[in-house]
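Duplicate of #3305? Posting structure anyway:
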């Protein structure tokens, strides 16, 4: 039972860490660094310092990991925060369709129309 609780905390902490770090980074880029909480400013300062030694992607991974570890402890996780499980790719079909239900017969009809007569946007906004 404790394992499920620990994994639940880890998942919530990881999701929150990813969202918060992204938000903080965007706020800092928009000039609102001073408006961020002190812990967010520290994570971003450490992130920026690492950029001189490693790539942006590597520094981001480390920063999110640091935020995740802090959140895991705050949310009641015991011990070190577990390594996040790799996400399973969603490869259910390789077809992307319009949300308005554009069917194959309509797509075939649109292909039959000369390019200069086709509607500008066959997939209207939803």
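Output from current build:
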């Amino acid at each position: 039972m404790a394992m499920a609780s620990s994994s639940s905390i880890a998942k919530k902490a990881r999701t929150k860490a990813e969202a918060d770090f992204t938000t903080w980074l965007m706020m800092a880029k928009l000039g609102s660094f001073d408006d961020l909480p002190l812990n967010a400013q520290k994570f971003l300062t450490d992130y920026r310092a690492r950029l001189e030694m490693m790539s942006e992607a590597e520094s981001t991974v480390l920063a999110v990991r640091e935020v995740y570890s802090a959140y895991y402890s705050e949310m009641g996780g015991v011990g070190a925060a577990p390594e996040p499980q790799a996400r399973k790719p969603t490869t259910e079909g390789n077809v992307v369709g319009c949300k308005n239900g554009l069917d194959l017969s309509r797509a075939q009809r649109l292909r039959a129309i000369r390019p200069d007569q086709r509607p500008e946007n066959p997939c209207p906004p939803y």
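Confirmed duplicate; merging threads. The two ends are 44 Å apart (CA to CA). Residues 17 and 43 are 11 Å apart (CA to CA).
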